[in-house]
User: Fold these one by one.
Assistant:
Number 1:
Amino acid sequence: MTPERRAVLNGVLDAPGHFTADDLYIRLKRRDPMVSRATVYRTLELLVGSRLVEKVDLGVQQAYYEYFFGREHHDHLICLGCGAIIEFTSQAIEDLQNVVCQEHHFEIRYHSHKVFGRCRKCQQGGSPDA
Amino acid sequence: MTPERRAVLNGVLDAPGHFTADDLYIRLKRRDPMVSRATVYRTLELLVGSRLVEKVDLGVQQAYYEYFFGREHHDHLICLGCGAIIEFTSQAIEDLQNVVCQEHHFEIRYHSHKVFGRCRKCQQGGSPDA
DNA sequence: ATTAATGCAAATTGTTTGCACGGTC
DNA sequence: GACCGTGCAAACAATTTGCATTAAT
């Protein structure tokens, strides 16, 4: 546990939900130890390996991360208007998913369920794009 | 509709399920007209726009495509052992997904549901990786 | 002639890596 | 003094783009 790694971990801890490696790097740059981008990537990978952080693929070319310690698995609603990310869990969906896998004799390891659309705010006169 | 575009479309039509832009490019290279990689990308994007082809994100850094004309939407089970891709549909899951979205006042546009694990073959003495 | 599509090669983007350097046991 | 982590800059890989050329109307 080096000072750099501690800095990255701290950065992760007060990150706002979902963030990219670069978000984190930029945010860390404002504080002292000035860790390098490479170390951010390397340390994030480390944290993912130790289940402290989860890497989530939100359908863009950039990987997102989120703090994961002790949290439940959840999936995401992703707003095409403002980029907001809403988390959800549904045991019923997971159960059905297990049934589907059984039918196909498929041994499930993990899954990713993303719904893209518009959040409440963006439906009401919000940003018109996407 | 140029000869190049026709060539790409033909390539798509006899593609084996899911393929990457580069798969397609390589495959086309064996036949005559020799379209360029750029044109393959450009044309695929065009076909996606006209709903003839669907772009699917399988969780790797490469985009996959599949012929989509007149097909139902479906989701995927992806084998971590051999890379096999099994398609599935479940109206029950989609219904529950709609309920979840309603609860969050989220207007759904499209979704992506991927399950990673091991296919039947790979469970039986198959490749040990992942 | 104007417009649109192509091919090439260079640019872009997010991420990874080789390697020399610095610190620690 | 062996080892590990770091920073830098170069390497990468998939995709996109600028631009000059070509083809079609």
Note: Chain A has a mean pLDDT of 93.
Number 2:
Amino acid sequence: MKLRPDNTRDRLIDTAMELFHSQGYQATGVAQILKKAEVNSGSLYYFFPTKEDLLLAVLEKYKLMLHPALLEPIWSRIDDPIEKVFGLLDGYRRLLMMTECNYGCPIGNLALEIGHSHAKARQLLADNFKGWRDAVHECLNAADDRLPSDVDRAQLASFVLTVMEGAVMQARTERSLKPFDDAVTQLRDYFDRLTADGTQWGAPAASELKPRINTDKE
Amino acid sequence: MKLRPDNTRDRLIDTAMELFHSQGYQATGVAQILKKAEVNSGSLYYFFPTKEDLLLAVLEKYKLMLHPALLEPIWSRIDDPIEKVFGLLDGYRRLLMMTECNYGCPIGNLALEIGHSHAKARQLLADNFKGWRDAVHECLNAADDRLPSDVDRAQLASFVLTVMEGAVMQARTERSLKPFDDAVTQLRDYFDRLTADGTQWGAPAASELKPRINTDKE
DNA sequence: GTCTATATATTGATAGAC
DNA sequence: GTCTATCAATATATAGAC
């Protein structure tokens, strides 16, 4: 599945991407990247004048990967626009599960670690967040008739990102899927209450009628 | 307000606490801590065998500070238990505002930066999260009659932490209070919908009747 | 408990041949 | 574009006098 690029530049980006994700930016040494990517120092600095430039390339790649690598596999599997959103959340659950809650959201990690000190990186992190929110926003627009008209779609999309990031953080810290699942349960309940009232407060919960993606406990 | 302890050990902890908060753990050098605390290398290593031991002391201090420094000023100002929760969130908003969205939650920062590699630190971070959740849980218990009986209070308290951490992350990354305020607005809406139905789906929104803390935009 | 001096490893980055 | 050798700075940590 995951093939190593013969292209040196791409191999450096891919390697840095993985190490930054698993260890963080500061904790990852240039020497470690070089060793793992099987590249020599001279080559790295031929492509990237500084370590930060490599970071920026990683963040650019995340932007490019958002649709083809993250969203498309889910979008193609799930039709219902609201279930798309929860399918996206389930993707982060799978990542947590597969890595014993060691890997979280790479953008969130870097946002808190280096968002303040590196201005260009911060902007790219913000771009990545925006792309994610926009994708959710489109889902909400596609479910327009099921949401109360006075609900701000962009704000709700931002809320979904907020919940995902906070949930991943807690899951990693507790080393358990429970905080993540709990958060998704609460968000689902909120969506149920939102979609239940086409007119405000009157209809019964529609929870039982809706399809659910599989989120079996570990 | 903030006085510098004459006690060397405490001065080191306070200084490290601030630098870890503003720059992160890895980005903060021991030399920088020594200079700012006006302490010599020998003294630091007399108290703390390694830099990580200093980190652990910082995290222990956060645990001790939770009630007296973070909660008590808010608890004493606000009576209503649900407004206490939103008052707590407003505390993080103030921190963001005062620091131009540079300072977030120190526990959240460290959770994502070093939660994976340092086992003891991770446990202390989890302890800190637990203390925070428990405090919110107590508020929810105190508002027991206003919440539907089938709502899991512990889960909802965890959700509040999730939202706070995710909201702070986005605010710092966007360098704007808007994502934070948006998240709080959504969470408020959720609480309104929860507290509106003592019996499920039937009562009108109680939003207009409730006191609100001041969350004027910047 | 605190001081100064210093050890040792690693950091990000560079030079210059090929 | 890639190679090896290496730089200068900084990292955490230690030694031993006071």
Note: Chain B touches chain A through 55 residues (CB under 8 Å).
